[in-house]
Amino acid sequence: MKIQPRQIEQFLKNPDPAVRAILVYGPDRGLVQERIRTLARHVVEDFNDPFNVSVLSGTTVAEDEARLDDEARAISMMGGARLVRIEDADEKIATAIKNYLKGPADQTLVLIEAGELTTRSNLRKTFESGKNCAALPCYVEDERDLATLIRGIFSDSGFRIAPDAVAYLAANLQGDRRRVRNEIDKLMLYMGEDKSIDLEAAQACCGEAGESSIDTLVYSVGERNAEAALGALGKLIEEGVPFIVVLRALQTHFRRLHLVKSVISEGGSVDEAMARLQPPVFFKFQQPFKGQASRWTLDTLETILRRLGDVEAQCKRTGTPVETLCAQTVLGLSRMPY
User: Fold this and answer.
1) pLDDT tens sequence across 84-119
2) Which one of 27, 46, 158, 308 has the fewest CB atoms closer than 10 angstroms to its CB?
């Protein structure tokens, strides 16, 4: 069963009882682990329950197919349903999973955690096409989705957050759901009894994240500053930000420039064009954004967007040296003529 993006939240709240195994995969490792825990709570109260939860590595399952079947059919000493978690899964377990799904255990849910899997992945195909299993993707969220998440978390915790503070956090915390959660928790702790969060508080608490943010990279590329762009890329790599996040951020930035440039070419003003952008350009980047919108041509922006789309496709191919490819892309875009 292939879970579409619009179906994910409903599936997480109410999984199909006929589904006996779920593959949770994608480049956002923090989101993968968060959704694994959400699904696990439908089966067990304690994620680390030694009696009702078994944890296997992908390597163990690949080397010993019978181990998965044995763990799934084991009877809990305390009674009730059981959970089997398979961590760090990859293509090597595809055959073992396919054989297990021919007759899965009735009282056990198997949760498989994996990284990015292409559409050619046999493991992914098995879960997307099966009737008693499901594939749940975890892709990196863009600024709009992240802003919605941030507002929801603060609201649920009794906090009020200003729109410009939301925009600041959404722009600077892209990359990994775990990182987003950690920064939000840190900000809540910083606020203490004060339940009203403004931009100054967000910058004071999460300023370090902003200084080494993806914004530094994309605006450096937009300014054709190769040295600053490569320096920002190096910091993001050190922070563990997935390469797909970098590419998506560049795509978003240049797509927004293309939209603004299109409006300008039709006789509109740059301010009118920027007013259409959602989320709006963060105030400290408004002047650099205006400058880039005036310098880049539509033809060049279209070339850049096509190139970024091609690079994203290449990064999803097995064996592609994504770090090298990403650095080459950043360097190449930073040297392109306007």
Assistant:
1) 999 999 999 999 999 999 999 988 999 999 988 888
2) 158
Residue type, 32: V
- With CA atoms as reference, report the closest residue to 149 among 119, 122, 169: 169
CATH topology of domain 5-137: Rossmann fold (3.40.50)
Q: What CATH class has 143-209?
A: mainly alpha
pLDDT tens digits for range 214-263: 788 999 999 999 999 998 888 888 777 777 778 888 998 999 999 999 99
Residue spans of the domains in the chain: they are 5-137, 143-209, 214-334
- Count the neighbouring beta carbons within 10 Å of the beta carbon of residue 212: 18
Using the CB atoms, write b or e for 278-315: b if 16+ within 10 Å.
ebebbeebeeebbebbeebeeebbeebbebbeebbeeb
Instruction: Tell me how far apart the alpha carbons of residues 133 and 37 are, in angstroms, rounded to a whole number.
Output: 17
